[in-house]
Amino acid sequence: MTALTADQIARVKATAPVFAEHGTTITKHFYQRMFNAHPELKNIFNQTHQKSGSQPETLARAVYAYAANIDNLGALGGAVTHIAHKHASLNIRPEHYPIVGRHLLGAVVDVLGEAVDQPTLDAWAVAYEQLANIMIGAEAKLYEAASWSGFRPFKVMRKQVESDEITSFYLAPADGASAGGFEPGQYVSVTRYVDQLGVDQPRQYSLSDAPHGRWLRISVKREDGRADTQPGHVSNILHADVEEGTIVHVSAPMGEFTLDRKKSTPVVLMSGGVGITPMTSMLATLLAERSERKIAFVHACRNGRVHAFKDWLRRSAAEHPNLKRVVFYEAVGADDRAGVDYDFEGRLDIGRVEADVMLPDADYYLCGPVAFMRAQREALVARGVDPACIHTEIFGSGML
């Protein structure tokens, strides 16, 4: 690998503001350019995120962060780990990186033209090679540790409606072998062919049960779409068309948002909406291991109709003295029972349940909409919780 010179480092760092200003224009053109030359790669990239612009924006932010920290790559450690897990879940391989690099640099030339000189392009070529090697190395370790390689056929052995929006799919290996292990909090990618797009599409779903080797369970929210968002292609296919007996193709579990099972200190699991899915895996694991750790399970959703795992959570709290359940309903329904289905009306407010969630030496796991997690994190930090004890999961591709 060619090392960056001091001059090249300075050139890359100096162009960081260019990506701050023009990055999304460059990355949108990059994806169009690459897909025109390699349409088969549409099977890897989320085409809904392409249309919405969220994927180009994510890439533009990643490129900017890399350029701005080119002389201090240690600052990117967490981002590299996060993206490596996403890539490994999507079966991104070393041979994909030269394609991406060629078209990304080509897009820079197409968009910026004479505004970027050849020495700067040469610097970026070396910088990209450096980044590609970092990612390839990180992903190689994940592939080596994975339970299987690529996408493996699983049969839907059970389909269970959990709420008006969420349905669980119990997936058993089609060959009858073990489903393998995973860490609670991890996710898998599932691929389905989407007629409207004419390509296979992968989507990542958190595992929602404890690891035991017999099956993997994913619990999928049906994304109906709103005025500002498209309906979810794959989630709707899974809900409407995938029945018991269907074969789906699944990647090995990945993800760095995982429960620390070695600790004996308290655990606080806080979720909003479909963010409950990795939390059920964490809680089910703690209960299966007969953990004596003090556990608080705090969940917020609109009402009982969309509250997945409601009965299981209530039973679990009744059967395990070390588990405290706290549920907030934003808009209580006519059939929702206070003290049975939910505990508080309104949005999750830590100030109303401090005695249950502010536990000494606890680790806090947050999952849900970004605004939800930001609010809860700020509330915890304001009450003196060490940020290092707050762990978050954001649903999304994060793909370079």
TrEMBL record:
Molecular-function GO term, any one: dioxygenase activity
Domain FAD-binding FR-type, first and last residues per copy: 149-260
UniProt EC number: 1.14.12.17
Keyword Transport in record: yes
PROSITE patterns linked: FAD_FR (PS51384), GLOBIN (PS01033)
Keyword field: Detoxification, Dioxygenase, Heme, Iron, Metal-binding, NAD, Oxidoreductase, Oxygen transport, Transport
Enzyme category, top tier: oxidoreductase
InterPro entries assigned: FAD-bd_FR_type, Flavoprot_Pyr_Nucl_cyt_Rdtase, FNR_nucleotide-bd, Globin, Globin-like_sf, Globin/Proto, OxRdtase_FAD/NAD-bd, Riboflavin_synthase-like_b-brl
The reaction(s) this protein catalyses: 2 nitric oxide + NADPH + 2 O2 = 2 nitrate + NADP(+) + H(+); 2 nitric oxide + NADH + 2 O2 = 2 nitrate + NAD(+) + H(+)
Highest taxon of the lineage: Bacteria
Function: Is involved in NO detoxification in an aerobic process, termed nitric oxide dioxygenase (NOD) reaction that utilizes O(2) and NAD(P)H to convert NO to nitrate, which protects the bacterium from various noxious nitrogen compounds. Therefore, plays a central role in the inducible response to nitrosative stress.
Matches recorded under NCBIfam families: PRK13289.1 (NF009805)
Similarity comment: In the C-terminal section; belongs to the flavoprotein pyridine nucleotide cytochrome reductase family.
The name this protein goes by in its record: nitric oxide dioxygenase
